[in-house]
Amino acid sequence: MHYLDHAATSPPTREVLEAVWPYLVQVTANPASVHTPGQQAREGLERARATAAAAIGCRPGEVVFTSGGTESDGLAVLGIAPAVVAARGRDRHLVTTAVEHSAVLEPARELERRGWRVDVVGVDGEGRVDVAALAAVVTERTALVSVMHANNEVGTVQPLAEVSQLCARRGVALHVDAVQSAGVLDLRALWSLGSAAGGVAAVSVSAHKLGGLRGSGLLAVRSGTPLEPVALGGGQERGRRSGTVDVASAVGLATALSAAAARRPHEVVRLEALRGRLVAGVLAAGEEAGVSVQLTGAAPGPGRLPGHASFVLPGLSGEVVLAELDLAGVACSSGSACSADSDDASHVLVAMGLDGGPAGAARTSVRATLGWSSTDADVDALLSALPTALARARL
Ligand code: PLP
């Protein structure tokens, strides 16, 4: 099978599996236990924390290990925002964007149910947040702003320097969902956008998007940022996230983060070259078949994730294209794996202005995303299977 769905998940890398193995078979005690095996587990955990912190540019004490991107986003929105209200007397006001992952949007809706004012700011036709609209709603009284680093469905990178500056000027904490970007964009540069005065204050990372294990992630929380725990219990992670920490997963995440940082300059160039060939080939196949194939999201370049390609196929069934590709041994997706079993049009594409009606373009998306294991052969397989898939998918 040719796997072109790294935005949904990437397979674990060999270096991650090798780093994790000792923590699955030898060092297996609870890191909170005081005996020697417990201390060994604790050492592994704290080494992982320091390694992850170095990749992000934060302090080890600012890393909270979680069960993944969803938990990290939930902890940021439901943990930081109410704590800021309590500690700093801010209004119950959250600002986010229309293209966030449901891991942010659902907690935002939960705050709304609790009586919060939630402003959801729109995006342009490429999925980039409207900074002027953001500036119009973020005030000195706002509790939290949450804007993703890069979008999972269309790969667009958000103008976070501007967003963070805006938040800093108003003394507001900014949470950034960096789940899609952590393997390929510079997290240290992202973290350096914030300070104690405001701007980037919390960053969500998920291990399985960059070659770590599924069910593992972290939330980096700048010290001084108020945080009420969401999971209550034994007080692990300095009271910020209770529950016995999975040391093996934390080691895997730290290994994946530092390997990705070391590989990044070369990997970005490699992925961009593969993606360039993929996009050109898909657009040419559309032209050849006489069907309209449109790239969605930002143009390839610094404004887009390097391994990310997404299209809409107006007049065709995206579902049939995906099924035909699957039959030909090529795994692509329709956009968000998390909403793949829902009949709704993509909220991201609709926010970008695409037609979300029953036969609208927003229901015809096909996403091909590359990662560490992707090769030329994967792109070739997609391009050779595509003409038949397009021919069979006409509505
Ligand atoms: N945020 C974004 C942007 C994502 O793409 C995803 C997963 O697809 C998540 C959050 C959720 O991460 P996890 O699968 O680790 O819970």
Question: What's the structural blueprint in terms of helices and strands?
Answer:
Blueprint: E1 2-3, H1 14-25, H2 36-56, E2 63-66, H3 69-88, E3 93-97, H4 102-113, E4 117-121, H5 131-137, E5 144-146, H6 160-169, E6 173-177, H7 187-191, E7 199-206, E8 217-221, H8 247-289, E9 294-295, E10 308-312, H9 318-327, E11 330-331, H10 347-351, E12 365-369, H11 376-392
Parallel strand pairs: 1-11, 3-4, 3-5, 5-6, 6-7
Antiparallel strand pairs: 2-8, 7-8, 9-10, 10-12
Helix pairs in contact: 1-8, 2-8, 3-4, 8-11, 9-11
The structure holds pyridoxal-5'-phosphate.
The site of pyridoxal-5'-phosphate (PLP) has 16 residues, from helix 3.
Question: Brief description of this entry?
Answer:
With about 400 residues, this protein is of the alpha/beta class.
How would you describe the overall organization of this protein?
There is one protein chain. With 395 residues, this protein is an alpha/beta fold. It folds into two domains: 2-8 and 263-391, Aspartate Aminotransferase, domain 1 (Alpha-Beta Complex); 14-258, Type I PLP-dependent aspartate aminotransferase-like (Major domain) (Aspartate Aminotransferase, domain 2), CATH 3.40.640.10. Helices cover 41% and strands 13% of the residues. The protein has helices at 14-25, 36-56, 69-88, 102-113, 131-137, 160-169, 187-191, 247-289, 318-327, 347-351, 376-392, and strands at 2-3, 63-66, 93-97, 117-121, 144-146, 173-177, 199-206, 217-221, 294-295, 308-312, 330-331, 365-369. The strands form three sheets. It has a seven-stranded mixed sheet with strand order 2-8-7-6-5-3-4, with helices on both faces. A three-stranded antiparallel sheet has the order 9-10-12. Strand 3, helix 4 and strand 4 (117-121) form a beta-alpha-beta unit. The longest helix has 43 residues, at 247-289. The two termini are 27 Å apart. Mean pLDDT is 96; it is low at 337-341. The protein binds pyridoxal-5'-phosphate (PLP). Pyridoxal-5'-phosphate is lined by residues 68-70, 73, 101, 103, 148, 152, 177, 179-180, 206, 208, 217, 337-338.
